[in-house]
Amino acid sequence: MSDEAINSGCQGGSGSGGDGMSVGALIRAAADGELTEAQIQTFEALCAERDCTKDRVRFEQTLRDACGKAMGDKPGCPDALRNKVRAIAAAGGDVGMASEAAAGSGTGSVVEAMGEQTRSVSFWRHSPGILAAAAVLALFAGVLILQGISLPTGAVPTGWTTEQAGYRDRVAGFVAKEHTRCCDSEGVSEDKLVIRDPGEAQTYFAESLGVSDVDLGVNRAAVGAVRFWGGGDCHVPGAPASGHVRFDATAPDGTDIHLSLFVVPDRDQLPIQEGMTYRVTSKACAEAGVNLFTWKRAGVVYLLVSEAQGGFCEVVRDLMHAPEGLEPF
Question: What is the mean pLDDT of residues 159-167?
Fold first, then answer.
């Protein structure tokens, strides 16, 4: 979506989102979960100024998801597209012959076969079909680039699609980073996690996610060693709406730790079943020194980022009402 289109949809202000970024670029970065700490502050200020900003983020996320589904699991040039490019190229004369020459030579590279011709300005002036062919090829190249963005960083688990594994890695990286950002800085938490009553947070997220109920587990101000800190809107990748709740806790050895619970509407983007808790293997979480667990219930996917270790980690999951069964993910 163009910056002009995004900017025109928000009332007031200039076309700059701060830090030299346009409003459109800032919104796209928010949709991808790629904002720096400074840019997040700028984005929150933008949201306060322009009520429609978060709706634009959700639109960008929905657009990316739609593109990912349309592109399928494996990069490749469909026969229909290949034939269309050849037909367009053939209309330009020399391009068609070069394509056939490349195919016959076994090089498989039209670019190499046409090297001498494409260096000439006259080639571009006298080949009416080449610009159209170039446009189609550029579009296909863009598809491959976009597809590569969602590729997983590690091996794809058996029974998973590449898209699912890529999405898992993307979400894991985001929640680990956001947990650290909000727990390392009280100022960031105060700005983002503005709902301080757990009952109010539960009601708010149910309405925001469009579900009947959101179970925040610890639904009182304090339960044993786990304390509700606050909650607020979040921008989990691929979710039209999402929430982030922070809890503070005291481990059995007296160490102060933090927990984050992210809630998103269930859109079947991850291959998980109700009644089971999954431990997510993630390089980002390992580097941050946290564990990540996920489960779903009644239309909501829960993502628990936990600094708890050993038996206390199980206690925390129980307090959050995570299903007892545990499987690797």
Answer: 83
Provide the token pair at 198: 């757990």
Cα distance between residue 122 and residue 105, in whole Å: 25
Q: What is the pTM of this model?
A: 0.57
Which whole number is the average pLDDT over 101-122?
52
- What dihedral angle (degrees, nearest 10) is formed by the CA atoms of 60, 167, 295, 320? -70
For the cut 60, the answer to whether the pLDDT of residue 58 exceeds it is yes
Question: Rounded CA gap, 175 and 168, in Å?
Answer: 11
Q: Please give the Cα distance from 26 to 16 (Å, whole number).
A: 9
Q: Which runs of consecutive H residues, i.e. helices, occur in the chain? A: 3-8, 23-32, 37-49, 53-71, 79-91, 94-105, 110-113, 115-118, 121-125, 130-149, 162-184, 186-192, 198-209, 283-288, 310-319
Mean pLDDT in residue range 260-268:
95
* 51 pLDDT above the threshold of 90: no
CA distance linking residue 200 with residue 68, whole number of Å: 35
In the numeric block, which tokens belong to residue 150?
């969602």
Structure confidence at residue 45 (pLDDT): 74
Alpha-carbon 96 to chain mean position? 41
Three-class secondary structure of residue 290 per DSSP: coil
Query: Helix (H, G, I), strand (E, B), or coil: what is residue 38?
Result: helix
Q: Which residues of 108-118 are buried (b: 16+ CB within 10 A; e: fewer)?
A: eebeebbeebb
Q: What is the pLDDT of residue 185?
A: 85
- Report d(CA 57, CA 127) in Å as an integer: 42
Structure tokens given for 286: 């390992």
* DSSP string of 145-212, one letter each residue: HHHHHT--SSPPPTT--HHHHHHHHHHHHHHHHHHHHHHH-HHHHHHH--B--HHHHHHHHHHHHTSS
Compare 327 and 127 and report the one with higher pLDDT.
327
